[in-house]
Write a structure and sequence with these properties.
- There is one protein chain.
- By secondary structure, the protein is α+β, with helices and mostly antiparallel strands.
- The chain is built from six helices and 14 strands.
- The protein has helices spanning 11-16, 20-35, 54-63, 137-155, 189-200, 206-210, and strands at 2-7, 39-43, 67-72, 83-88, 94-96, 112-116, 121-126, 160-165, 203-205, 220-221, 238-243, 250-255, 263-264, 267-271.
- The chain is globular and about 45 Å long.
C-alpha cells in the first residue's frame, strides 16, 4: 500500500491557487493525485469549523475521484490547524477523531484523525508547536505524553502506521543548523526526548530506518527566510512512523520534491501490508 502525508499549510490556498505560492501548492497536490496513494493524509488544512466548502469538496473530488474524504476542523479557533484524510473507496475503514486528554484546548484543534482497517490502523497528527519563546512548551510536553499513550493503545490492538508534522527534528542530522537552534521550538532537549520516548514505545522512524546515514534530507524550510530552500537550510520534522513489527514490510520511505516551494514537503511510505 502507498501512503502520502503532507502539511499543506491551507487547503484553500491550494484549491484557489491565486498566488505564485498557491500555484506551486496546487502543482504539488496534482503530483500527489497522480501517485494514486491508498491513503493521503493532510495536516494544517486551516478549514472553517464546519469543514470544507462545497467548492473545496468538488475540486478535491475531481482531483481524487473514487476517494472518500474525512476531516476534522479546529473548534477552538477558526481557520487554524485541522486534519484531513482521503482514502480509496474500495476500503471501508472505521474513522475516529480521538480525544486524548491533551492540555488546554489542544483536543479541540482538530489535530488527529485515525482510520481503522481490519489488520492495522492508519493515523495522522498535527503536533502543536511550542511557539515563540517556547510559550507552549509545557503544554506541548503534556501533548506528547498523551499522544504516546494514545498511539500505544492502538498498537496494543494491531499495528499502526502514523504520519504528520511532529514539529520536532529528532537528531542533529535532521536539521541544517543544530548548534544555533538548540533552544528553539522544534529542537529543544525536551521535545527531542519526548520523540525518543515515542520511538522507544515500540515505533520506527521509517525514513531513518531505511536511510540511516542520510544527511541534508529535510521536509521543511522556513518561509520567512527567502533563501532557506535555495541553501537547503531545512529541518526534517515530518515523519512516517510505524509499529516495529512492520519493519520487515517497509518498502520505501521518501520525501517528495517540491522544487522551489518552501514550507513543508510531502512524505511517502510504501508498505507491503
Amino acid at each position: 500500500m502507498l501512503f502520502i502525508s503532507w502539511n499543506i499549510d491551507s487547503l484553500n490556498a491550494a484549491i484557489e491557487h491565486k498566488s505564485a505560492r498557491g500555484e506551486m501548492t496546487w502543482a504539488v497536490l496534482n503530483e500527489i493525485a497522480a501517485q494514486n496513494p491508498d491513503v493521503f493524509a493532510i495536516q494544517e488544512t486551516k478549514l472553517k469549523a464546519t469543514g470544507p466548502t462545497p467548492k473545496q469538496l468538488t475540486v478535491l473530488g475531481d482531483l481524487f475521484p473514487d476517494y472518500e474524504i474525512v476531516w476534522r476542523s479546529s473548534q477552538a479557533r477558526a481557520g487554524y490547524a485541522g486534519t484531513m484524510m482521503l482514502y480509496r473507496n474500495t476500503y471501508a475503514p472505521i474513522v475516529s477523531a480521538p480525544v486524548i486528554g491533551a492540555p488546554d484546548v489542544m483536543d479541540d484543534e482538530g489535530r488527529i484523525l485515525t482510520l481503522e482497517f481490519p489488520k492495522f490502523f492508519v493515523s495522522t497528527v498535527y503536533t502543536p508547536n511550542s511557539g515563540s519563546a517556547l510559550a507552549r512548551l509545557g503544554d506541548r510536553q503534556g501533548w506528547d505524553d498523551a499522544y504516546r499513550t494514545y498511539i500505544s493503545t492502538l498498537d496494543a490492538q494491531k499495528p499502526v502506521i502514523f504520519s504528520g508534522d511532529f514539529n520536532v527534528a529528532h537528531t542533529e542530522i535532521d536539521l541544517k543548523n543544530p548548534k544555533t537552534n538548540r533552544k528553539n521550538a522544534g529542537f529543544t532537549d525536551e521535545e527531542r526526548e519526548k520523540f525518543s520516548a515515542l520511538l522507544a514505545a515500540g515505533f520506527t522512524d521509517t525514513f531513518r530506518y531505511l536511510h540511516p546515514d542520510a544527511r541534508d534530507m529535510y521536509t521543511w524550510w522556513a518561509q520567512i527566510a527567502k533563501t532557506s530552500k535555495i541553501n537547503n537550510s531545512g529541518w526534517r520534522i515530518d515523519y512516517y512512523l510505524a509499529s516495529e513489527r512492520l519493519n520487515d514490510k517497509l518498502v520505501r520511505s521518501e520525501i517528495v520534491d517540491t522544487g522551489l516551494r518552501q514550507d513543508h514537503a510531502p512524505i511517502l511510505l510504501e508498505v507491503d501490508i
